[in-house]
User: Fold these one by one.
Assistant:
Number 1:
Amino acid sequence: MILPNATLGLIGGGQLGRMFTMAARNMDYGVTVLDPDPLSPAAEFATAHLNTAYTDLASIETLSASCAAVTTEFENAPAEVLTTLAARTVVRPSGHAVAIAQDRHTEKNFFKSNGFPVGPFAIINCVDDIDIALHDIRLPAVLKTARFGYDGKGQARINSRDELAATLTAWKFAPSIIEEFIPLKLEISVILARAANGEVEVFPVAENQHVNGILDITIAPARIAETLATKAITLAQKLATALNYVGILAVEFFITADDQLLINEIAPRPHNSGHFTIDACRTSQFVQQVRVLCDLPLGDASQHSPAVMLNLLGDVWQGLDHEISPDWQAVLQHPGAHLHLYGKREARKGRKMGHVTVCDPDLSQALAIALQIRQALSQSN
Ligand SMILES: Nc1ncnc2c1ncn2[C@@H]1O[C@H](COP(=O)(O)OP(=O)(O)O)[C@@H](O)[C@H]1O
Ligand SMILES: [Mg+2]
């Protein structure tokens, strides 16, 4: 066991890293953050900030020499850096698991070859792949770059062959996948922790609503049949086992019109749809990340209050350049609403600036308050 007072390394210093760092610091672990952004949200709480590129050799040396264990908060952490570090210190999740999750080609192939349910897709690397892809999947479709996409970025809706060819040309034929557009009944996610000894603790299934490809609202627990929730949890557990995964794993699912579960993607880290766990579960996903990293016994992931999480995007910051914070009174007047801000100095459209979690014994009441807050914030803009 790695006990409090040890130093933990964190690759990536965004909001997920900030909340991990807060959890770790609260237990008196030191945290060294590696992030090229001088204004990294995590660095504000960290004990040290290595303000360099992720591949900087001196920084990697510092992490391996001074950290009892290293984790990551984003899937674009160079997998080879994690693998290098693993020769000298504990690294969770592994470079292997991150490598699979950070590339939609390897990710989708992994799902398919291990028998996990996925929607129809095809891989595109060059112009010749266009007709092969359109033979295998039907339009309309969604085209996604294999790497570095997030929050709906690096994605395009495709309605015709011409549109596909034009988009790929504009993208300079960056390796991509094309997926059939699935008419969605609902989206859900399962977040779990898998310990080094194989023990697993699963958070309640979350129901997710996206706007423009970005998570807008999470409702927890998801309003789905028990049997479907159990099925999703079982699939997520099997996936974690198949990956030999150690750490926090998020699995995003589509629920189709006929109640089929399809795996959309995985994230080798805490997930935006798990932010409700901070205020509504006995252990948050970030405390759990510390626990699994340090080989502490896993915390109880059960929920003590129904909750609705509302993302706060830069869109609701006011003024021409989104330079003025919203009137927080709209949030703070609700006793069950918990405000979380990520310390980002520059608000931009679509940028995740914070979130609000509304806890209420009645889930529909929590949802009503969250929607009221969203309405008030967007109106004041
Ligand atoms: N094949 C698809 N059919 C229908 N909707 C999709 C499809 N792929 C993505 N979406 C929508 O776009 C959102 C973001 O896509 P996703 O693949 O999860 O990328 P990101 O890495 O940006 O989260 C999904 O949560 C879903 O709402
Ligand atoms: Mg996603």
Number 2:
Amino acid sequence: MTLIFSGNDYKYEIEGIMKLFIPASRFKYIYSDSIDVSDSYAFVCSALDGENTRLSVKADLYGKKAERELVVGKDDSVDEELILSKLLYQAMSEITGIKPKWGVMTGVRPVKRVNKYIDKGLSYDEIRELFSKEFYCSDEKFDIAYKTAAVQRKLMQTVDKRSFSLYVSIPFCPTRCSYCSFISQTISSAKKLIPEYIDRLCDEIRFTGQLAGSLGLALDTVYFGGGTPTSLDASGLARIMKAVSESFDVSKVREYTVEAGRADTITEEKLRTVKANGCTRVSVNPQTLNNSVLEAIGRRHTVEQFYDAFDIAAKIGFEHINTDIIAGLPTDTPDSFYSTLDGLIRLGPDNITVHTLSIKRAADLNHAEDKPIVLKSPTGLMIDYASDILPINNYQPYYLYRQKNMLENLENIGWSKPGCESLYNIFIMEEIQTILAVGAGASSKLVDLEGKRLQRVFNYKHPLEYIKHFDLMLEKKKETVDFYAEEK
Ligand code: SF4
């Protein structure tokens, strides 16, 4: 598929729209005022025409054609990129017969937009209409975004502006899942690195403790993620958690999560250790309750191991247990997904997070190049089932986000029993609190006191780079001080 741009360069957004319809396509980009290609194409044009600007698109998919045009005054203040995206969406919908449920909303945080409109005083109906008219978002997706915002708002109001959350990255896993898009090394390949990684991580925690202290920031929530933090042994976990409690005032911490993640890393000793060191919330993630699917994705643990790990966590008595599952896993079927979800509901964790599979490369999808997505796909059915069954079992959506290359442009939703929402997940998604992040692959997200400025500070991605360039990285971390200095 060739994307031809004339008078504009909205490459990122236009490609995003095309991927809603033909996710596996590889795109060629051409800048030209004419269409001179023999294969499928989309021509996206912005042209001055006297006192006007003519915005037009022409699309051709295997000979099926559609076009749209809109003329606006050349001095009108319009969002050309959005108009062209909408014109292309209309043309591609006509060709394929598909209307993606999020419309032209290709961004990560649709709930943030809902929150903005609520802040402006708009009602449910007014925002629904805006979502529909401006972004072609379906009422169904809008409704879930709105409900998510409604749950979040009460919790967002509890954030102290001088507080922050701490993210600790442990980028190791026992084996690599076939769909993984995270920076994570297998424990066996990283074995030699791990002692030094823990040393440096503890150093960075101490450094960050001093930084936060000098800025007068108070620690609010802690999140250990990765990777799978419980890939480390109990003594390694204890060392890192002690570095946290010695470097920060943890007396006011409202939530302390450790992603135990994979059942094959969980032991009673490790869970008792993390609880003794302050952890209040653990994730024990089955991803599916179907052994053949677990095998297909290379998780190397069984459903029975998940149940055992969950029982240990329940016995030890964490305040909250989260479980993650994924819709759209290779070899999974709607029926098998439904029984996974039913099984989890019977188990009754406080949170069930339903992810949609995100594929690293579009070519990994089960689609031929340029083949449109199907209307009633298995993954769509799985997500619809979750949205139907969870509310009637007392779970409400409390955070929602989307990622690049998610199957069918769907979403991830964290569901929670009332009062059991994870604060950290809301803060990171809605970008309302500074996250100071430590460890390889972590990135700090600085949010100013007014919640208007946002800056990221990246750590080195791979553990080896992280260790090698540690001093340089700490130097860079001082950008945090400059960021807060601008407040004055
Ligand atoms: S457990 Fe998570 S981070 Fe680890 S390999 Fe699997 S998907 Fe990647």
